[in-house]
Write a structure and sequence with these properties.
The structure holds two protein chains of two kinds. Chain A folds into four domains: 185 residues, Pyruvate-ferredoxin Oxidoreductase, domain 3 (3-Layer(aba) Sandwich), CATH 3.40.920; 184 residues, Rossmann fold; 68 residues, no CATH class; 115 residues, Rossmann fold, CATH 3.40.50. Helices cover 37% and strands 21% of the residues of chain A. Chain A is built from 20 helices and 21 strands. In chain A, the strands form four sheets. Chain A has a seven-stranded mixed sheet, with helices on both faces. Chain A has a six-stranded mixed sheet with strand order 2-3-1-4-5-6, with helices on both faces. A five-stranded mixed sheet of chain A has the order 16-18-17-20-21, with helices on both faces. Chain A starts with 8 loop residues before the first helix and ends with a helix. The N terminus of chain A is likely disordered. Chain B has a single domain, classed as Thiamin diphosphate (ThDP)-binding fold, Pyr/PP domains (Rossmann fold, 3-Layer(aba) Sandwich), CATH 3.40.50. Helix content of chain B is 36%, strand content 16%. In chain B, strands 2-1-3-4-8-7-10-9 form an eight-stranded mixed sheet, sandwiched between helices. In chain B, strands 5-6 form a two-stranded antiparallel sheet. Chain B is globular. The model of chain B has no long low-confidence stretch (mean pLDDT 96). The chains are: A alpha/beta, B alpha/beta. Chains A and B meet through strand 7, helix 8, helix 10, helix 11 and strand 15 of A and strand 1, strand 2, helix 4, helix 6 and helix 10 of B. Strand 15 of chain A pairs parallel with strand 2 of chain B.
Chain lengths: 595, 297
C-alpha cells in the first residue's frame, strides 16, 4: 500500500460537493447494484446523482463499469474523470487507472490486483475485498457479497448515512431468504468497519435539493411510466437491447391499469399489433432499438398514410447493423424523421435526461392523439440505463385519462376530411347513416375510398404534411440557457443536455458569451430558430453521430437545410460513450478562436 | 374498454354491400364475399361490431367491398394487426381476409404465432395457388411443375402445406373448403366464426385470369371429386388424424380437419388484468402510479 500526498488532498479532507466514483469489475460482480444503491441513497438525501454504465453484450462475464457522480448541487453529467476508482481485478485496474484524475483515490482488491507505481499522485489503497468478504460471511461462503463489502467501505470513507444506505440494501434483498439478508449485512458491516487509515474521511456537504418527494431511477423506467400517465394502455414489442426493459416493465404494469403489453414474434408483428390497437381506439405503443426501428419502417409509413395515432420508442444504440448493442449513439435521428418509403411525415421527440423521459412520453401521447399521427420518441442507451434523482412528477398536473371514443358518427363524418385533422371512428362506433369507413394505406379520398386521382394525392399529401406545420406553429420556445446573444450557441438534442449545460456554465465562467438551446421537438422543429441563431457568431451542434461525407452531424444537417445558416458547425463523437464536458469546451474554444 | 349498446337492426345484404368488387369476372372470391354476407346475416352480429381486416393482394381488397368497419393494411401483416384489435377490443368480431401470398409467404411467420397464441379471430385464406395482383408469379402453394412468369420452366420448389403447418403451430380450428361449393363454404365460415380462438378456413378460390381450372379436381361440376371429411369417424381433436388428412394427395378432403378447445390468448390476458386489478383493490389509476413512485424513493 503506498500513499503519495496529492495537491488536492486537503480539499478532499474537508467536505465534498461532488464525487465521481467508478467501479470497474466484471458483469457478475454486482457493481451495478452498488452503484444503484448509492444513486438511490443520493435521491433520498437531497443529493443529486447521475450514473453511467457499460455492460458487455454477453449473458454473464466480461468487463463492466458503473460510474456514479454524486453532488450536493445539480449534477448534469456522469463525470469526465473519476475521483475514486474501485478496481476488482487486474484488468479493471490496468484499464481504468487512467480514468482517475491526478491525486485521485484507487481502492483495489489486493487479492487480485498488483499495484503499479505512477507519477500522478494517486492514493492507492489495497483492501482484500475477496478474502475479507469470505471471512465476514463465514461458512462456505464464496466471494459473493464483496460488492456489499465495498459499499460498506465507501459508506465509511464518504461518511454516508449508514442506516439509510443499508435500509435500501435491505429493501432490495427483502423478498429473499433471511440468510441472504444476514450475509448482506455481515459483508456491509465488515466493509464499513474496515480500517482505511490512510485517508481522512470525506463527508459530503448536505444536499441542496429541497423537493419533498424525490425519485431515483433510470430513463427506461420513467419512459414507461410516462406512457402510462399519458394514457397508453396497449403495447407490443420484441426483445432488443436497450429497449427491452420498457417492454418488461409495461408487461407487468399495464394489466394493473386494465391494459396489456404483448410480446410478439418479430418487430413487424409488434408495430402491426400496436397499429391494430390504435385503430381500435386505444393509444398504443411499440418500440425497439435502431435495427428494430428499420424493420418497423414500412408500418410507420402506413400509420402516416392511414393517419393513426401511434407511439414508437427507439432507444438508440451504436450502429449500423448490430453495431454496438450496449453502447450509446444518436445516429438514428434521420432514420426517425425520414426513414420510410414515400413522403411520410411523422413527429420525432427526444428526452434530454431521465426525468424528461416522463414528460416527453406524455407529450408524445398528446401529439399522437391530437394529430392522429405516429410519434417517435428517440431516447438512447445512456438515458435508458443511467440513474438520476429528481422530483416526483405531479400527477394532478400531468395525468391524462385514457379515452375510447365509441360515439355514433353522423352524416357529416368523413375519415379523411381535407379541411380538418383526421379523427377516426373506431370499430364499435355506430354510423347514423349506416355507412362504415375503411382505414387504408392506399391513397384515398375523404371517405377512404382508393383514389389515384393526381390532385387527390397532392391534396392528401399536403393534408398529412400540414399537420406537422400546424404542430410546429403551436410549439413552445425551446429550452434556452445562458447568454441570449454572443460568441457561440450550442444546439443539442437528447442525452447531450447535461454536458452541454455544464460546458455552457464553464465557458461563461471564463468570460465567454455562450448560450445553449436544447430541442425536445426535433421534428417538426419550432419556427423561428433562424432568428435565434442570428444572435450568435457560431452555432455548435454536439452529436453522438458521424459527421458524414459533408462534415455535419444529423441534426446539424437538418438545421443547415432549414435555416441556411453557414455558421452551424458540428462536433461529433462516435466512441459509444457520452461527451465529456471538456471535449465540448475545447470544440467551442477552437471555434471561438476563429473569431 | 367499455361495451357499447348492441345494434337493434337485422343485417341485410343491402346494408353489407359496399363498392363493387374490382375482381375479374368469374373470380372465386365473389362467392366468398357472398358467403360472408350470408353468414354474418344469419349469425345476427351487430353491424358496428364487425371488423374486416386485410393485407395486400386481390382477395385482400375485401374490406372495400363490405360495408362494415374495415382496415386495409400492409402486405403480410393483417394477422398481427387483427390480433391487436381482438386483444384490445373483446367486444368486436374480427375477420381477416387474404390470399396465399399474403398469408403463407410474406406473412407466414405470423400464421404460426397467431395459431400458437390461439388469438380469437376468424381468418379466411383465399388460396388460388398464384400471385394474381402482380400478374402470375409462382406463389407458396403453386404445385411443382406449374409454369409462371417467375418459373417459365415450371415451379421447382415444394409448395407449403398450410393445413399441416397450422396443425404443427397449434391452431384450434382448421377447415378446408372450395369457393365453388357455396353451402359447404357457408357452413365452414359459420363454424369458424363460432369457434372460440384462432379459426382458419383455407378456401380454394380460382384465379380465372392466371390459373383457370386449378381446382377443377375438387369440383364435381368440372369432373372432379368433392370428398368430405367424415366427422363421425374422424377424431376431431387429434393432431395426428388432422395431419393424415393434410397429407392426402390433391384434391384431398374438404371440411373441418381439427376442432378443439384450448384457452385463448384473449382469456389469458384478461385473466391477468383481472388478477392485477383485484390486487390493486380500490386504488385509482393515479394512486397506482403514485404507489409505484413511492417504491422508487
Amino acid at each position: 500500500m503506498s500513499i503519495t500526498p496529492s495537491p488536492t488532498r486537503d480539499e478532499q479532507c474537508e467536505s465534498l460537493r461532488n464525487a465521481v466514483i467508478r467501479f470497474a469489475g466484471h458483469s457478475q460482480d454486482g457493481i451495478q447494484s452498488i452503484g444503484a444503491f448509492l444513486a438511490q441513497l443520493a435521491g433520498t438525501t437531497a443529493q443529486d446523482v447521475m450514473t453511467y454504465m457499460t455492460i458487455p453484450s454477453t449473458i454473464s462475464g466480461g468487463p463492466s463499469i458503473f460510474q456514479v457522480h454524486l453532488g450536493s448541487g445539480k449534477v448534469l453529467h456522469p463525470g469526465d474523470e473519476a475521483d475514486t476508482l474501485v478496481a476488482f481485478y487486474q484488468d479493471s485496474y490496468d484499464n481504468h487507472l487512467k480514468s482517475l484524475r491526478d491525486g485521485g483515490i484507487c481502492f483495489y482488491d489486493s487479492d487480485n490486483v498488483e499495484e503499479v507505481k505512477d507519477e500522478r499522485g494517486i492514493i492507492h489503497i489495497g483492501v482484500p475485498f475477496t478474502t475479507a468478504t469470505i471471512e465476514a460471511i463465514g461458512g462456505t461462503a464464496k466471494s459473493r457479497g464483496k460488492n456489499l463489502f465495498v459499499l460498506g467501505v465507501l459508506c465509511s470513507v464518504y461518511q454516508l448515512d449508514r442506516e439509510k444506505l443499508f435500509a435500501i440494501v435491505a429493501k432490495k434483498f427483502g423478498g429473499k431468504s433471511e440468510d441472504i439478508l444476514r450475509n448482506a449485512q455481515l459483508a456491509f458491516d465488515a466493509g464499513a468497519a474496515w480500517p482505511v487509515h490512510d485517508i481522512e474521511h470525506m463527508p459530503f456537504v448536505p444536499g441542496e435539493n429541497s423537493a419533498e418527494k424525490r425519485l431515483s431511477t433510470d430513463g427506461n423506467t420513467m419512459l414507461s411510466l410516462g406512457l402510462i400517465a399519458g394514457g397508453c394502455r396497449f403495447g407490443a414489442g420484441y426483445p432488443i437491447t436497450p429497449w427491452s426493459t420498457i417492454m418488461e416493465m409495461l408487461r407487468v404494469e399495464l394489466p394493473k391499469y386494465g391494459g396489456m403489453f404483448i410480446q410478439v414474434e418479430d418487430e413487424l408483428a409488434a408495430v402491426s399489433m400496436a397499429i391494430g390497437a390504435a385503430y381500435s381506439g386505444h393509444l398504443a405503443i411499440t418500440g425497439s432499438s435502431g435495427p428494430g426501428l428499420s424493420l418497423k419502417s414500412e408500418a410507420i409509413g402506413y400509420a402516416t398514410m392511414a393517419e393513426l395515432p401511434l407511439i414508437v420508442c427507439n432507444i438508440q444504440r451504436g450502429g449500423p447493423s448490430t453495431g454496438l448493442p450496449t453502447s450509446v449513439e444518436q445516429s438514428d435521428l434521420l432514420q426517425a424523421i425520414y426513414g420510410s418509403h414515400g413522403d411520410s411525415p411523422r413527429v420525432v421527440l427526444a428526452p434530454r435526461d431521465v426525468e424528461d423521459c416522463f414528460y416527453t412520453a406524455i407529450e408524445a401521447c398528446r401529439i399522437a392523439r391530437e394529430y392522429s399521427t405516429p410519434v417517435i420518441i428517440l431516447s438512447d442507451q445512456a438515458i435508458a440505463t443511467r440513474i438520476e434523482a429528481f422530483e416526483e412528477p405531479d400527477l394532478e398536473k400531468h395525468w391524462r385519462e385514457p379515452t375510447l371514443d365509441l360515439n355514433e358518427r353522423g352524416a357529416d363524418f368523413k375519415p379523411y376530411p381535407l379541411d380538418a385533422i383526421t379523427q377516426h371512428s373506431a370499430p364499435g362506433s355506430r354510423s347514423s347513416e349506416g355507412k362504415y369507413p375503411v382505414v387504408t394505406g392506399l391513397e384515398h379520398d375523404e371517405w377512404g375510398h382508393p383514389s389515384a386521382n393526381p390532385k387527390m394525392h397532392a391534396d392528401m399529401t399536403a393534408k398529412r404534411r400540414n399537420k406537422l406545420v400546424k404542430l410546429a406553429n403551436s410549439l413552445p420556445s425551446p429550452d434556452f440557457y445562458g447568454d441570449e446573444q454572443g460568441e457561440l450557441l450550442f444546439v443539442g438534442w437528447g442525452s447531450t443536455y447535461g454536458p452541454i449545460k455544464e460546458a455552457t456554465d464553464r465557458l461563461r465562467a471564463e468570460g465567454h458569451k455562450v448560450g445553449s438551446l436544447h430541442l425536445r421537438h426535433v421534428h417538426p422543429l419550432r419556427n423561428g430558430l433562424d432568428q435565434i441563431f442570428d444572435h450568435y457568431t457560431h452555432i455548435l451542434v454536439p452529436e453522438m453521430n458521424d459527421e458524414g461525407p459533408y462534415g455535419h452531424g444529423q441534426l446539424a444537417t437538418l438545421l443547415r437545410s432549414v435555416t441556411c445558416n453557414p455558421a452551424i458547425q458540428s462536433v461529433n463523437k462516435v466512441e459509444g460513450i457520452t461527451f465529456r464536458v471538456r471535449e465540448l469546451i475545447s470544440a467551442a474554444e477552437k471555434l471561438m478562436a476563429q473569431g | 374498454m367499455s361495451e357499447p349498446a348492441a345494434a337493434p337492426e337485422r343485417l341485410t345484404k343491402k346494408m353489407l354491400k359496399a363498392d363493387h368488387p374490382t375482381w375479374c369476372p368469374g373470380c372465386g372470391d365473389f362467392a366468398v364475399l357472398a358467403s360472408f354476407f350470408n353468414v354474418v346475416q344469419k349469425l345476427g352480429i351487430p353491424h358496428e361490431k364487425i371488423v374486416c381486416v386485410a393485407g395486400i393482394g386481390c382477395s385482400s381488397r375485401f374490406p372495400y367491398f363490405v360495408n362494415t368497419h374495415g382496415i386495409h393494411f400492409i402486405h403480410g401483416r393483417a394477422v398481427p394487426l387483427a390480433t391487436g384489435i381482438s386483444l384490445s377490443r373483446p367486444d368486436l368480431h374480427v375477420f381477416v381476409f387474404g390470399g396465399d401470398g399474403d398469408g403463407y409467404s410474406i406473412g407466414g411467420n405470423h400464421l404460426n404465432h397467431a395459431a400458437r397464441k390461439n388469438v380469437n379471430l376468424s381468418y379466411v385464406i383465399m388460396d388460388n395457388f398464384v400471385y394474381g395482383l402482380t400478374k402470375n408469379q409462382t406463389s407458396p402453394t403453386t404445385p411443382i411443375g406449374r409454369k409462371s412468369k417467375t418459373d417459365p420452366r415450371g415451379a421447382i420448389d415444394q409448395p407449403i402445406n398450410p393445413m399441416s403447418q397450422l396443425v404443427a403451430s397449434g391452431a384450434t380450428f382448421i377447415a378446408r373448403t372450395h369457393a365453388a361449393q357455396v353451402k359447404h363454404m357457408n357452413e365452414m365460415f359459420e363454424r369458424a366464426i363460432l369457434h372460440p380462438g384462432f379459426a382458419v378456413v383455407e378456401t380454394l378460390s380460382e384465379c380465372t385470369m392466371f390459373y383457370p381450372g386449378a381446382f377443377d379436381d375438387g369440383n364435381p361440376r368440372k369432373g372432379g371429386k368433392f370428398d368430405l371429411v367424415d366427422e363421425k369417424t374422424q377424431d376431431m381433436e387429434s393432431n395426428l388424424a388432422a395431419l393424415e388428412l393434410a397429407e392426402l394427395e390433391a384434391p384431398g378432403k374438404f371440411g373441418v380437419f381439427l376442432e378443439k378447445q384450448r384457452p385463448t390468448k384473449n382469456e389469458g390476458e384478461r385473466a391477468w388484468i383481472a388478477d392485477a386489478q383485484a390486487k390493486a383493490a380500490d386504488l385509482s389509476e393515479k394512486d397506482l402510479l403514485r404507489q409505484r413512485f413511492a417504491a422508487m424513493r
